[in-house]
Design a protein that fits this description.
about 40% helix, alpha+beta, disordered N terminus
């Protein structure tokens, strides 16, 4: 026989709703490339990926310079595209096309204690449908070859790197 605990109160339905909402918010922040405002614009450019089209990496399988004519502002940062069609694809699903880790060097996020701000937009890898940018092609090759170890390390390191970047105002 189960005895009721004296003085115990049942949770109100609103508590369940609030708890579920908090869970959904927490779950959303577990993904590495969420709309958290961390976007690498380099030291001098002020444009995401140095003005390269994030959709082109997927559609054309190469780095393609975008145009200010096809700009779109996302996360408070301008993103350039090579065509209106690419801009529309991005607008409809930016998380599908945006680079992981805010566009910072994925190899650095996975490895050392620093984050390389200036990446080479032509040094990229698409691993499991996600875009990773690096400092140079050597980093890209190494990152892609060891992605099964590098991606989980980078995912785990990213929250700390984000906090450091925010502290130093490098985004």
């Amino acid at each position: 026989m189960v005895k009721p605990v004296l003085g115990a109160k049942r949770a109100k339905p609103t508590h369940y709703i609030a708890g579920a909402a908090l869970f959904v918010v927490a779950l959303g922040y577990s993904a590495p490339v969420l709309a958290d405002g961390t976007v690498n614009t380099g030291y001098f450019g002020g444009v995401a990926i140095g003005g390269y089209d994030p959709v082109a990496y997927f559609v054309d399988n190469k780095a393609v310079k975008g145009s200010e004519k096809y700009a779109y502002d996302w996360l408070g940062t301008p993103w350039y595209f090579a065509s209106d069609a690419h801009r529309e694809l991005f607008k409809n699903n930016p998380l599908k096309y945006a680079p992981q880790y805010g566009g910072y060097c994925a190899a650095e996020v996975a490895g050392s204690g620093s984050v390389t701000v200036n990446i080479d937009p032509e040094a990229f890898a698409i691993v499991n449908g996600k875009l990773y940018l690096t400092y140079d092609n050597v980093d890209t090759q190494d990152f892609a070859m060891h992605a099964s170890e590098a991606v989980p390390k980078a995912d785990a390191n990213w929250p700390k790197k984000q906090a450091e970047l925010a502290k130093n105002d490098f985004h």
